[in-house]
Amino acid sequence: MGSAASSGFDTDTLRRGIEGHTPETLLSLYADDAEIRLVNRNATPSHPMVLHGRDEISKMLSDVYSRDMTHKLEECVVQGDRAAYSESCQYPDGLRVLSESMITLRDGKISEQIMVEAWDE
69 with 92: CB under 8 angstroms? Predict the structure, then answer.
């Protein structure tokens, strides 16, 4: 996968942050005014959870990556000012979560992210 030089988006940092459970590393990839729209079992497409700015994003990343679970970056594609990636997660009891993200980049940083999660239930 390697770093994406054309967009300036560092996919190696993305992998290290996700698989290393380091929210600080992941946060370094976001612009100060970034926005995440999250759709999952608790936040429907009509009423997504919306996080504004690095402070709100930092709290969410700290929560997710402090949990006792594995995280793996499955795939990442970067083209121009867009990127998409898949992340698979598993809790110790076997419950799995799959997350798909579509991101918009500005100056090599994530400015917008739409994240859709699917959970075993």
Answer: yes
